Amino acid sequence: MTTTLTIEGLNAWFGSDQILSDVHMSIRPQSVTAIIGPSGCGKSTLLRCINRMHEEVRDARTSGKILLDGNDIFAGDPVDIRREIGMVFQRPNPFPTMSVLENAVAGLRLRGRYPKAMLQERAEKALRSAGLWDEVKDRLSQPGARLSGGQQQRLCIARALANEPEVLLMDEPASALDPISTQQIEDTVMKLKDTVTVVIVTHNMQQAARISDETAFMLREHMDRPSELVEFGDTKLLFTTPQDKRTEAYITGRFG
Fold first, then answer.
1. CATH topology of domain 5-91+165-251
2. Residue 112's pLDDT is what?
3. pTM for the predicted model, two decimal places
4. How far does Cα 31 stand from its chain's mean position?
């Protein structure tokens, strides 16, 4: 699978407050792209635009294009788009009344009726891809909420993967986890890019440097101005020889 995700002149508003201004990005297929920047600079808003969730907020709107393999996602059904572009949130959110197995295939079950054998097959595949199968294969009937925090987050990753998306968006998926769980999430992300295009928001610049192929630095310099994409490119180059002084100031800890 070689999925191209292209953002062309994206703008986003909450009411009269413009959050994003003229964002242009071309995400490489089967890669990990990190989005970094200070709090409030529109990183999560960008992900929610890509997932068609931004427009669900009252008075929120966008302009510009986001193309998935050349097709404008704003021209399609949001529900269909979210099957192609999965999302994992900052805090684990497994369905508390569902078992591990039921959580893994919850998205599939919402789409229609599937044979039990197929659901079990897709669940195992997704749990393996999320690096969780060996830890839960004997606990599939137990509630997903009984898993540890890190396991719950990987269960949420598996739930997104069960839909076989082309792109997986991750909004600070390890920010609420301990170091061991964070390492497990990072290992999972590194393996996922063999089959899925990953875009991950992170406040942890060391994490971005470790796991991403390309990095985007976003900045909102003044609250009366929208956020802009300051710099986007190869992660190693951006962290060692940034082209913009604002990027250098941020990654060296002078602000943010």
1. Rossmann fold (3.40.50)
2. 65
3. 0.93
4. 12
